[in-house]
């Protein structure tokens, strides 16, 4: 039974306090609101208001979830993934204290697809999402008032917040507050100026709740400030924090680059170099370290599952080694991403996981941890906890699929589709060339040796699997089929 209770919404910007029923997110103020869940007295303009807490505290066994997603970070751009020219000590420590995946995949090769896959728990193609949204694009994104893991957790009395990048829709009904998040601070679009906070076409894009928000500071710092604030406020109840860093996506601006010329609609928006990219990654690592330190300071380490990953392979200044390709490609360099998870006392420390897994597996995992039953109509991924806790030695063999599809409304390079099954990966171009490639990605991670003529039978089966999958995820198909 869904619990209902009164809580207090503290809306600082309006200098007011108001009692509301929390399960209706629409009732929340859209400015800076703070949610508190303990019985307490409040003094408001001379009046003392006693609010009765009507529900018992949330079930203690549900862990906090902190899902950290970086943007366009290459597979090889953490020290613990082999980078030698940058340092990521806090993420490296997270890996030492938890598990690190070698064969983790993003749901897609660009931002919107992977983020849609994570929040819905399904192949994003089911929503017709194959490509990233453009600036201020309307009529696309998540389903209006759709089902997301945030809404699932909200229904389990989790406090939910997105601090950072959204990139899943601008329309009413598609914004974070419409998709199960109690709180939102960040950018709706795909990237913005790290100091001036306008998007590439010059439209201001920094939000608190449903309102545009002016703030002074480097975006990575602002996101971190908000994330830490959210954790502090909700320390006594389960929370879900989607900490979605904008870094190291362009514009290439490190924390000391306030005066660097970066202008909307100008080439300077995408001009950068490896040194700037490294500064962005290293600063993000420091900020993640501050967030993790706050979790420790509040005594929440053993109550909190922390997950870190990237939404797609690295872009122009990134290092995707040892793979070929990068962002926007479904070669391994475009979809293989770093992934680390830590939950003290529940997950092993310092373990390497080689089983192939994908972003939307975390959605199924999080749903299970919050007490939600497996639901094939809501989950294309699998629960990772049995693997991570050693109950099973590997995941059941399953194909994983990717697609980069042509779209007349935008430029799409290299339309193609791919499937990985076991050690094998089939890539089929869907342009006029019709080229096909077949690789053993364990022996040949850089996908340099096309062995398609050596394995006709498995190639035929995997190509048929791709056909079946495309049919199953077509708009209007039954998600559970
Ligand atoms: Ca991205």
Task: Walk me through the structure.
The chain is an alpha/beta fold. The chain has 3 domains: 6-50, no CATH class; 64-388, Alkaline Phosphatase, subunit A (3-Layer(aba) Sandwich); 401-473, 2-Layer Sandwich (Arylsulfatase, C-terminal domain), CATH 3.30.1120.10. Helix content is 21%, strand content 20%. It has 9 helices and 21 strands. It has helices at 89-96, 111-120, 149-154, 219-233, 274-297, 332-335, 359-369, 385-388, 456-473, and strands at 6-11, 16-21, 33-36, 41-44, 47-50, 64-70, 99-101, 104-105, 159-165, 183-187, 207-208, 211-212, 239-244, 304-310, 339-342, 351-353, 357-358, 400-404, 416-421, 424-429, 436-440. Strands 12-11-10-9-13-6-14-15-7-16 form a 10-stranded mixed sheet. Strands 18-19-20-21 form a 4-stranded antiparallel sheet, covered by helices on one side. Helix 2 (111-120) runs parallel beside helix 7 (359-369) and helix 4 (219-233) runs parallel beside helix 5. The chain is globular and about 60 Å long. The two termini are 29 Å apart. Calcium ion (CA) binds at residues 71-72, 111, 249, 311-312.
């Amino acid at each position: 039974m869904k619990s209902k209770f009164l809580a207090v919404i503290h809306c600082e910007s309006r200098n007011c306090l108001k009692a509301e029923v929390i399960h209706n997110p629409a009732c929340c103020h859209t400015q800076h609101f703070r949610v508190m869940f303990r019985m307490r007295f409040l003094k408001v303009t001379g009046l003392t208001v006693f609010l009765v807490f009507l529900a018992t505290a949330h079930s203690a066994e549900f862990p906090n979830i902190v899902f950290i997603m970086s943007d366009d970070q290459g597979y090889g751009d953490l020290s613990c993934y082999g980078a030698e020219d940058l340092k990521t000590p806090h993420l490296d420590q997270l890996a030492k204290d938890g598990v690190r995946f070698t064969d983790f995949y993003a749901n897609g090769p660009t931002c919107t697809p992977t983020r849609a896959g994570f929040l819905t728990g399904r192949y994003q193609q089911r929503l017709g999402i194959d490509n990233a949204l453009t600036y201020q694009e309307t009529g696309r994104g998540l389903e209006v008032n759709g089902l997301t893991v945030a809404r699932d957790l909200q229904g389990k009395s989790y406090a939910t917040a997105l601090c950072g990048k959204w990139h899943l829709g601008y329309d009413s009904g598609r914004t974070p507050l419409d998709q199960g998040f109690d709180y939102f601070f960040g950018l709706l679009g795909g990237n913005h100026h790290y100091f001036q906070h306008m998007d590439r076409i010059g439209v201001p894009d920094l939000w608190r709740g449903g309102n545009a928000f002016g703030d002074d500071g480097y975006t990575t710092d602002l996101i971190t400030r908000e994330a830490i604030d959210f954790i502090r406020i909700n320390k006594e109840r389960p929370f879900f924090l989607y900490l979605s860093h904008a870094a190291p996506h362009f514009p290439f601006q490190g924390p000391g680059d306030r005066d660097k010329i970066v202008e909307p609609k100008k080439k300077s928006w995408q001009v950068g170099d490896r040194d700037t990219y490294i500064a962005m990654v290293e600063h993000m690592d420091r900020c993640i370290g501050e967030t993790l330190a706050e979790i420790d300071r509040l005594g929440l380490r053993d109550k909190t599952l922390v997950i870190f990953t990237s939404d797609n392979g690295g872009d122009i200044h990134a290092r995707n080694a040892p793979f070929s390709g990068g962002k926007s490609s479904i070669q391994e360099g475009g979809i293989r991403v770093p992934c680390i998870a830590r939950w003290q006392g529940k997950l092993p420390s310092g373990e390497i996981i080689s089983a192939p897994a994908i972003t939307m597996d975390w959605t199924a995992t999080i749903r299970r941890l919050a007490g939600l039953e497996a639901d094939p109509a809501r989950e294309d991924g699998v629960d990772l906890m049995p693997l991570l806790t050693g109950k099973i030695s590997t995941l059941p063999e399953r194909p994983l699929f990717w697609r980069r599809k042509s779209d007349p409304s935008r430029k799409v390079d290299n339309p193609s589709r791919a499937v990985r099954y076991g050690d094998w990966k089939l890539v089929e171009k869907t342009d006029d060339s019709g080229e096909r490639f077949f690789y053993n990605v364990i022996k040949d991670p850089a996908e340099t040796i096309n062995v398609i003529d050596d394995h006709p039978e498995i190639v035929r089966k995997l190509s048929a699997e791709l056909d079946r999958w495309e049919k199953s995820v077509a708009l209007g198909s039954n998600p559970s089929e």
